[in-house]
Design brief:
mainly alpha, two-stranded antiparallel ribbon, 8 helices, 2 strands, chloroplast, plastid, chlorophyll binding
Length: 254
């Protein structure tokens, strides 16, 4: 738990920048780089905390990766958790609206029930649907770890850019999928300067940290605990289950 808190609040990390694949730069994940990134973060959260590492995890060596490899792993983990939290926070809000949780002319899945909480919506999804979601996420995770061996890819524990997800290339049967860049899927964003990219990395890190705290706050209040100011919202969705047991509605080992 302390490690997760440290990751959420650690004053340094570098986020995803595409489209070019990152080159291997050993010093990229050094502790000195972390300190420089923290000092260069001019937003309120970054400038207030600075380089904050009370547990000394930036000096550790996980799984014999070496210190720089460990720092790369931790930076990538924070970025990934921040992205998931941003999606989860917005998803929770969206699933609380009648557009998503209300009645549908065509139910989104078998057994759909309108007017329930976001967590109950997940519980009501058939097991096969949940497994499809987990399989899709696992495929993305595997590809992001370099399973597809994309050209120029360098793993984040070996000097690559933490948070980088390589463009998806290949074929679906006889059909080529071309180059699917999740950062610019339709090439709708203009090219950015290096300063703009650096600013974007800081914004993503800070937003991800805030989203991690925000999502935990939503889930905590939903479980009946008091989380100001959420406890003052009339009709805040309550959930009696445990979000850490995602398949409890399908089977249990206890």
């Amino acid at each position: 738990a302390k490690l997760l808190v440290a990751l959420a609040l650690c004053g340094t990390a570098s986020a995803y920048v595409a489209p070019a694949a990152p080159k291997a730069v050993g010093a990229l994940n050094s502790k000195a780089e972390l300190e420089a990134l923290a000092e260069g973060n001019g937003d309120f959260l970054g400038s207030t905390l600075g380089f904050w590492d009370p547990l000394g995890i930036s000096d550790q060596d996980f799984w014999n990766l070496g210190n720089e490899g460990t720092i790369g792993y931790l930076r990538h983990a924070e970025i990934k958790h921040g992205r998931v939290a941003m999606a989860g926070f917005l998803g929770f809000l969206a699933q609380c609206t009648p557009i998503v949780s209300g009645e549908h002319a065509l139910p989104p899945y078998r057994g759909y029930v309108a007017g329930v909480t976001p967590q109950e919506q997940w519980d009501n999804i058939p097991l096969i649907g949940k497994l499809q979601i987990f399989t899709f996420v696992g495929m993305l995770e595997s590809y992001g770890e370099g399973a597809g061996q994309p050209d120029g890819y360098v793993h984040y524990t070996k000097g690559g850019l933490p948070g980088y997800f390589p463009p998806i290339e290949g074929r679906i049967g006889p059909f080529p999928i071309g180059n699917l860049n999740l950062y610019k899927p339709f090439d709708i964003f203009p090219e950015q300067s290096e300063d703009e990219k650096a600013r974007g990395r800081q914004v993503e890190i800070n937003n991800g940290r805030l989203a991690m705290l925000g999502l935990i706050s939503l889930l905590t209040e939903s479980n009946g605990l008091i989380v100001p100011p959420l406890d003052g919202i009339e009709g805040f969705p309550k959930y009696a289950g445990n979000v850490m047991i995602p398949f409890s509605a399908d089977f249990s080992l206890y």
